[in-house]
Amino acid sequence: xxxxxxxxxxxxxxxxxxxxxxxxxxxxxxxxxxxxxxxxxxxxxxxxxxxxxxxxxxxxxxxxxxxxxxxxxxxxxxxxxxxxxxxxxxxxxxxxxxxxxxxxxxxxxxxxxxxxxxxxxxxxxxxxxxxxxxxxxxxxxxxxxxxxxxxxxxxxxxxxxxxxxxxxxxxxxxxxxxxxxxxxxxxxxxxxxxxxxxxxxxxxxxxxxxxxxxxxxxxxxxxxxxxxxxxxxxxxxxxxxxxxxxxxxxxxxxxxxxxxxxxxxxxxxxxxxxxxxxxxxxxxxxxxxxxxxxxxxxxxxxxxxxxxxxxxxxxxxxxxxxxxxxxxxxxxxxxxxxxxxxxxxxxxxxxxxxxxxxxxx
Length: 361
Prior knowledge:
Residues 21-233 form the Calcineurin-like phosphoesterase domain. By secondary structure, the protein is of the alpha/beta class.
């Protein structure tokens, strides 16, 4: 039998009570950088942990335990479809001191797909974690929602259907419509690949998902979006449809947990680094085209750091969200190179319900 472990549950839903500190990190893996990230994160004493996909990277290992030389071997076209399940056990044992004491919610990334016999996908991910899918009206472990005090979290999937006719979209529309902002003033969403990232890696890779879902998130007044996938840190200004908008969400990219693939450092707006639209994979089809308006009109990339990009840095680290009240939340990002208490990026995120009213439930 294991040792006994204890943790504090989330505050009851209400506008005046919040988890003191919410740790947010993606693309962890199990490397020397991971150990620094997790040690710093634990030193910041979170009350809730959000893992934004790409957890163990078990799919980068062959079934004999040796590391694959191909980072793309889990693609549908690849002749190699292997994954090393003991890697999940190694990762789980390493994470135990954290996840056994801090309530943890996860969402899947592409490294959790793990295509296996009989076309199974997400088998390890769906078996090793518990999701409040049924409680939130979802029919899948790949998308769900939950409350933590005065925050309503929506966890979405970019790796199953998300168009307007899909079960996920219909569930999201219903879930957002049921949110009572008098009870949970803050509305936060998370999924793995980002809609707004200025790095060349995975640039506009899920443009179809943005086209399908962005209006819905904007209409219901989502405040913050967390993403991973790109191995770097970036925070946006409030943005909607690539334009600054005081009522749009703040998008925060935290794919800098410590993964084995290394950091992404090249920006698409730098000379010679803009990907070709024809070579940009879009998991939902072909939606990434040249911009038709704004400073980048007629181009696929901006020729300078976009207005919506507020801060970006290629360093491993983690983030801490501290919701203070119904309108103010403090966000801080902590790079691994520095002492855990030092913030490399820190800002208050302010809700303005009078300026950006949301229809009452």
